[in-house]
């Protein structure tokens, strides 16, 4: 029991130190406005990609509709913060966005998650398109022009906090009874079902949690960029998130963090190359996939527990 | 006492009748074998009983703590929760997960860990998780696998993978255990070990075992009763001694006039 407390406190310390370090760097001037922009976008991408990794990497369901759920979160939160432009409004907006998105995922998930592989990918892609077209035609979402003058409420501390919160929820979910049941679906659905695991329920649950975190990512995106339009949430956005997941390693949350950071920084550095930027970006992706097909980290996961165990082991060796 | 009662069970695949009019029963705490030539419909019968495929006709009913329950149209996971566990002819472990996780997953239905409990890592989560882990390790100990808890299932040797499948099935706390060709691909020594193991399981866990097997040494040694299936039909039922003398069975296996 004490050990668990130690691990949890270590994680808390890592999060607090991370916050302090970023604050310090900003104060000294190492991170300028441009750097902060990159950092916030990396944070939002981490939130989006960890949710997708839960769906693809852990429950083994190939979804191409993540941008749709992101759009729901973005629009709901933008509409709410436009009338209540306070941090409280932001909190309400994020929760409401996540709730609406989860509800849509539940309704969509129950019939579509009977499909698998390519069929599911196409079905989820269709769902995202439907969401985008609805947003394109509704009056309240201002049609194709989208929403603008959304208050800037997603400052970097808010994004940092939400990265921590969503990651904690997903990681704790994975390392529990629920997460094991979800992974058993990925491993072997027939075996899992004959062991008394209600596979439909766990697949849908993973999908719903992934959709809710996508909505939080979308909400932060809307309140940081300050303008959103339906075209922002097309298939390319879904694929961008998918690239982060695949590049980091399908089934590794740590990998998702690393990939989001690497791609974010790569994008920032390549800004100076003008039109060549997309060519170099794609080239980097191809090279990475050729030389590291399982992703940057494969399924490796950073764990405080293992770190402590290794430390105590080497200490014992030293004593002996 | 009759635990599982199967009446006039039939399954048609288009024009093909894979299982036809099978009536059989399993008693409490009994070791029964199901044999038959290749393609006789043994695995189809298993799949019918475990809910993987839905029967065309007939009923399957099971005596449970809540009275008699009909299993016919139940989903596989519901059937498993009623107390029917199985292993597979071609091993179906959760390959990329640890041995311990394989067993823990089988305990999902009996595990009352709540969603919020685990998300917020409440103290009760750690208590339940520790208790569960202990239960799983204790179970693995019976099969001498306690040293392999952290190994990935795919890295186990073949015999151990077969054993892990049995442990995993037992972790669901079944009343009836179905073993689909547990000795497939084993050498005579391993088969002898397995024979001992199955007997031990049945005694220790006080459950009913139904096994499909081609290895006659194992079947004749273990089974109290044997059902023989050919072309989807039951052609004989009886004790090992009776089956060995049965003319229909001899004909099914060896061919020829009789």
From TrEMBL, chain A:
Annotated TM spans: 12-31, 37-56, 63-84, 90-110, 117-135, 155-174, 204-221, 241-266, 278-300
Top-level division of the source organism's lineage: Bacteria
Pfam families membership: BPD_transp_2
Keyword annotations from UniProtKB, A to Z: Cell membrane, Membrane, Transmembrane, Transmembrane helix
Membrane topology: Multi-pass membrane protein
GO MF annotation list: branched-chain amino acid transmembrane transporter activity
Chief location bin: membrane
GO CC entries: plasma membrane
Places the protein is found: Cell membrane
Name of the protein in its database record: Branched-chain amino acid transport system permease protein LivM
Organism: Paucilactobacillus wasatchensis
Gene this protein is translated from: livM
TrEMBL record, chain B:
One Gene Ontology CC term in the entry: plasma membrane
GO terms of molecular function: ATP binding; ATP hydrolysis activity; L-isoleucine transmembrane transporter activity; L-phenylalanine transmembrane transporter activity; L-valine transmembrane transporter activity
PANTHER family linked: AMINO ACID ABC TRANSPORTER ATP-BINDING PROTEIN (PTHR45772:SF7), CONSERVED COMPONENT OF ABC TRANSPORTER FOR NATURAL AMINO ACIDS-RELATED (PTHR45772)
Name by which UniProt lists this protein: Branched-chain amino acid transport ATP-binding protein LivG
Family annotation (Pfam families): ABC_tran, BCA_ABC_TP_C
A Gene Ontology biological process term: L-valine import across plasma membrane
Keyword DNA damage attached: no
Gene name of the record: livG
Residues in ABC transporter domain copies: 4-256
Keywords assigned by UniProt, alphabetized: ATP-binding, Nucleotide-binding, Transport
